[in-house]
Amino acid sequence: MMYLDGPPRVIETRVLSTMPAKFRRPGLRSDWADANRGGKPVDCFIEGPSFDASGNLYLVDIPFGRIFRIATDGSWSLVIEYDGCQTA
Description:
- This protein is mainly β and about 90 residues long.
- It contains one helix and four strands, in the order αββββ.
- The chain has one helix at about 30-35, and strands at about 45-50, 55-60, 65-70, 75-80.
- β2 and β3 (about 65-70) form a beta hairpin.
- The longest helix is centred in the middle third of the chain and has 6 residues, at about 30-35.
- It is extended and about 50 Å long.
- The mean pLDDT is about 90.
């Protein structure tokens, strides 16, 4: 049995940023998409958010092996690119 003093508080959400089109990779095959999306192409799949002390947000694009920084002004930059998710 769950006990609550009252109903949960509703927190309104809104999208603050989306990956810019210049960084998306539409229609490209990746090992990650083959393994996780049945081969359906994905243009990105970001996860692993982490903030630095200055408030910049870092995200990992798993299928294409990229790490992005979203600055406090909302601008995106590519920090590094590696081999990405590879299946053996």
